[in-house]
Amino acid sequence: MQGSAVALAKPDTLRNSKRNAGTALRPEAFESIQINLSAVERRAASLPTRRSVKKEYQAAWLVKALTCIDLTTLAGDDTPSRVHRLCAKAMRPLSDELLKGLGLEDDPPTVGAVCVYPTMVPAAVKALKGSGIPVASVATGFPTGLTPLPQRLEEIRYAVGEGAGEIDIVINRALVFDQEWQALYDEVAAMREACGEAHLKAILATGDLKTLRNVYKASMVSMQAGADFIKTSTGKEDVNATLPVSLVMIRALRDYVEETGYRVGFKPAGGLKTAKDAMNWLILMKEELSRPWLEPDLFRIGASSMLADIERQLEHFVTGRYSATYRHPIA
Amino acid sequence: MVHVKDVLKSMDYGPSPEGNEHVTAWLETHKSGFGHFIDGKFTDPTANKSFKVTNPADGKPLARVALGTAEDVDRAVSAANRAFKSWSKLSGHERAKYLYAIARNIQKRDRFLAVLETMDNGKPIRETRDIDIPLVARHFYHHAGWAELLESEFPGYRPVGVCGQVIPWNFPLLMLAWKIAPALAAGNTVVLKPAEQTPLTALAFAEICREVGLPAGVVNIVTGEGETGAALVAHEDVAKIAFTGSTDVGKVIRKATAGSGKKLSLELGGKSPFIVFDDADLDSAVEGLVDAIWLNQGEVCCAGSRLLVQEGIAEKLYAKVRQRMEKLRVGSPLDKSTDIGAVVSTEQLERISSLVAKGKAEGAEVFQPSIDIPGTGTFFAPTLMTGVEPASTVAVVEIFGPVLVAMTFRTPDEAVTLANNTRFGLAASVWSENISRSLDVAARLKAGVIWINATNLFDAAAGFGGYRESGYGREGGREGLFEYLVLDSVRQKAADHVKASLVAAPSSTSQVIAVDAVDRTAKLYVGGKQARPDSGYSYAVTTPAGKQAGLAGLGNRKDIRNAVEAATKAESWGAATAHNRAQILYYLAENLSARADEFEARLRSMSGASKRDAAEEVETAIRRTFFYAGFADKHDGAVHSTKSRHVTLAMNEPFGIMGVLCPEEAPLLGFVSLIMPALATGNRIVAVPSSRYPLAATDFYQIVDTSDVPAGVLSIVTGNAVELAKTLADHDEVAALWNFNSGVDAALVDKASAGNLKPVWNGGSRDWQAEDAQGREFLRRSTQVKNIWVPYGE
Question: A 271-310 residues with CB below 8 A of B?
Answer without folding.
Answer: 282, 286-287, 291, 294
